[in-house]
Specification:
single chain; 380 residues; alpha/beta; 6-stranded parallel β-sheet; 3-stranded antiparallel β-sheet; 15 helices; 38% helix; 14% strand; elongated
């Protein structure tokens, strides 16, 4: 057995990051993931590549899959794709509804052929909204979900977060939603349509803490989680680097100030009550920043571990594979790719005691597995 989803077949009929990443997660968990793709995927044609179609981004979201090249606008090749979908337990797509309709790939059409099919459709906005079918990118979703407003209020600039958060959070949502639908499928033998709108997903994600005072009616305070919106919400410079040091309770603060050689600050009334008032957090953060250069990052790590003060060194991505925690956990692995040579890939973060998840197959070049897969289907 190679992972808890061994025996499950997933068709990845998606592009760029969101759908492919969701399908890769299912592949990491043992599913047989087959990606149907055609030329034109921006993730295949972007930056950082040694050979055509094998960009860094494509390598990051296409492992544990087989790639089948089929032109869905061609009747004969679309028929082959339909035969392949007939063998699947689940399908993931982020094609727009109009394109799915023109190609005969809607849920209604595919479920008539394969009643057990779990059909996960992800797009920028809900299918029953006035934005259904609108083009959506991670930046538009960050704006439409309120994330840009959060950044503007916290930083004073309406910036996008420097990560494709909407794509990746939606990918995780697709993955767990497909798993839930597969459980229902195994109980009943029936599939279902699963819609994952990116904007709705990120709104729900943001509101976990940022609904805040608007949780109540009438609102008792503004939206926005004070701790993460405060000006003091930042990492600090130590004697030799950067670290996250977050004294949480009064004793944490007193121990921190004592270790920094500032015993007079440990007598501050703001850190000698039963709790630290949130109104004092920004001012205390300035004191943490002032004191942090007293010790090296390693010295602070030792002090904070001794006194149970939350702390972590800032991981420098350029040197991440040298970090002992990353290295010992196999979180970045150097592997030998059959066409790309030595490449780095993120490790699988989840550990199963009975059904270990494994990297069984490195990302294929576009269409590299077409003959193998179609031969399997025709032989059924």
């Amino acid at each position: 057995m190679s992972g808890p989803l061994d025996g499950i077949r997933v068709i990845d009929l998606s592009t760029v990051v969101m759908g492919p990443y969701a399908a890769q997660i299912l592949g990491d968990l043992g599913a047989d993931v087959i990606r149907i793709e055609a030329p034109g995927d921006s993730a295949r044609n972007g930056h950082y590549r040694n050979t055509p179609g094998m960009t860094a981004l494509a390598l990051a979201v296409n492992r544990n899959k087989r790639s089948v090249a089929l032109n869905l606008k061609d009747d004969e090749q679309r028929a082959r794709a339909l035969d392949l979908i007939d063998t699947a337990d689940a399908l993931i797509t982020n094609m727009r509804p109009g394109a799915l309709g023109r190609l005969g790939l809607t849920y209604d059409e595919l479920s008539r052929r394969n009643p057990k099919l779990v059909y996960a459709h992800a797009q920028g906005f809900r299918g029953d909204s006035d934005r259904a079918g609108h083009a959506a990118y991670d930046e538009t979703v960050q704006a439409a979900s309120g994330l840009v407003d959060i950044a503007n209020r916290a930083l004073g600039k309406p910036v996008y977060l420097p990560t494709i958060l909407g794509d990746k959070v939606s990918a995780l949502t697709i993955a767990y939603s497909v798993l839930a639908a597969l459980l229902h499928q195994q109980k009943t033998g029936r599939g279902q349509h699963v819609e994952v709108p990116m904007t709705d997903t990120l709104i729900a994600f943001n509101l976990v803490e940022h609904l805040a005072g608007h949780t109540f009616e009438p609102p008792s305070a503004p939206t926005g989680f004070p701790l993460s919106m405060g000006q003091g919400h930042r990492a600090v410079r130590t004697k030799d680097g950067l670290a996250c040091v977050i004294p949480y309770n009064p004793q944490n603060f007193r121990d921190f100030f004592a270790a920094a050689g500032r015993p007079e600050l440990a007598e501050d009334p703001r850190v000698n009550g039963d709790y630290v008032d949130s109104a004092d957090k920004d001012a205390l953060a300035d004191l943490i920043e002032e004191c942090a250069p007293a010790l090296t990052t390693a010295e602070w790590a030792e002090v904070c571990a001794k006194h149970s003060i939350p702390m972590a060194p800032v991981l420098e991505l350029d040197r991440a594979d040298e970090d002992p925690y990353v290295r010992d956990g196999g979180l970045i692995r150097l592997v030998e790719h059959p066409t790309e040579g030595p490449v780095r890939t993120a490790g699988i973060p989840v550990r199963f005691s009975e059904t270990p998840a494994e990297i069984r197959r490195l990302p294929s070049a576009p269409g590299a597995d077409t003959e193998e897969v179609l031969r399997e289907v025709s032989g059924r």
